[in-house]
Sequence to fold (680 residues):
Amino acid sequence: MDYRKRMESLVRELLRHQQLYHVLARPEIPDAEYDRLLDELLLLEKRFPQFAGANSPSRRVGSDLDNTFPERPHTVPVLSLNKLYQPQELGQWLLKTEAAAGCGVGFAIEEKIDGASIVLYYDQGELQYALTRGNGLLGNDVSDNVRTISQVPLRIAESSRLAVRGEIYIKRDDFERYNSGVAEKYVNPRNLAAGSLRNLKSVQTARVPLNIFVYEGFFANEFSRDHLEILQRLRELGFRVNPRLGFFCDDKGKRLRAQHLFPGISAAPVAAVEEYLRRQAASRADVPYDIDGLVVKVVELAVRQELGTTAHHPRWAMAYKFESPQARTLLLDVQIQVGRNGRVTPVALLKPVAISGSTVTRATLHNQDYIDMLELNVGDEVSISRRGDVIPAVEEVLEKSEQHPGIFQLPGSCPFCSTLLVKEGAHHFCKNQACPERRRRALNYFCAREQMDIETLGEKTIAFLFAKGWVQSIPDIYSFDYGLLAGQEGFREKKIVRIRAGVEASKSRPFVRVLAALGCEGVAAAVAADLIAHGFDDIDKIIAAAKKNDWEIFAAIEGIGETTARLLISHFSKPENLRLIDSLKTAGLKFVGEKTGGDMVNDSFAGQIWVITGSFVQFNPRALAAAAIEKRGGRVTENVSARTTHLLAGSHPGSKLAKAEKIGCKIIRENEFIALLGAL
Fold:
């Protein structure tokens, strides 16, 4: 196996699923499947650290950044959590943590509510702004929407600066009532809560029954010794703190103190934790909101500081995830889906069954290998779970159908164009570029919010235009006379005007968006930004580089591996893709990046070889720093070597910093780098 290629493939897949879950609230795979992929990547990174990329999902929280809202830097740690699934595993983690601390430790256990993470920032007693978790360094400013939540204090009796982390959620009963009154149904309360924070009009958010619990406070005056004191102070200031707390410590005095601060708290020795976990899991249905686990935290702040954090998670906290609820139902049929790049995905059509308050009718079957593993066929009785309480999954066959005793097989040809399917790795593909389903999916992708953001051309409208034969390819979006919609059911004059305006507005989208929307596999917005920042700020430059058929031209850019580089060459060498670009140029789309002050500023970095590592506030993505170096004559490489002259080190720099220090190259921090640029 080519382990570097496998790691690059895992990184692309995991980043894509982070975007689907955190930003679009449209997850495609179960939590357990995501965790399996992440565990595989972690194992490979441990074995082959030389191939681990700085932007690996193992080094960052899942980002929910959305360019619709302004970004602000976080001033407090906003990390993700490591996860465990068995009570015994958590018991072992508690013992290991106590051993690392070298003293008796108290552990708080709080419910892990399935909602939308938020950070509230206060100064001089006033709520200044509210940020989503974002990528852990930056968050989206959703202050106007958060201010509509009555449970969020707008003024508090605390003059010093204060940051408060919390979870915005919706009770199940409130969700059912709200969902019954809207045309476009939401899948679950978490998706509605996350989506409501991104409403462009706060009056819409005010109509949604949002709640909040807070669980961490960062006081500028550092008055407290432990986590329980912080929660008590937050409660005094008017914040909602979840009263369903557990506290475990072998020190009886500390347990009594916890019960004094929080009457009714479950307080017991550490050995009782596993039984507490089982009780909480068994009683979760009695809680009026969705929880998918518990969070266990070291209480003492001094111990937290000593244990420290990784780039991804604190070492003093752990998430314990509940097992997914299951139900028994019947597999009615298997539907075959074909994506824009030709990937074939089988989907289980199920006899409707209720799980965790939701009715499940569909579940992904991933690929033929997954079906073979289950020995699954139409008519079988199956066990269904909601992994992570979100995505339905077929877990096992409980009883085989007498009418269909074998195993379901994917068709040999595409159900939409009859082209023979080709198996590559675990998946089957339709290789026909003219496949009508691939073309329809490509239209949806191009118009989606995260690409060209043509909001007025949603999936239903595109399906109608496609079925009529009016819009069959991406260039048709810009050449079709939308006046022909007059008189068609559902298309009144105002809607037609809005569609025209949306299409016209998309012509002003920046090159980075156009480049990502072209559909080159592996080239999402982040990779497109990296390309542009490294001099590929004109589509003709990318095409010219692709013609050289040298993947190392693109792979020289940090964050772009060999696999993505080869995909770039393949995509921008195909005649049909070049014809598409020519058509979109004619339509008036932007294929040249915005100028940022010329190609070269000066040659002050001439002869210098830089490596960039870690996370940055002003240089996010890091391609911005690379561009600043190259505009001054320097060269940026991915790995530290004997030739490296400078290392630009952000927060959480990893092993590259130690290697750079060992060889004696110059270490530059972000504030020094900013000052250096300003002085040149």
User: Anything to note?
Assistant: The mean pLDDT is 85.
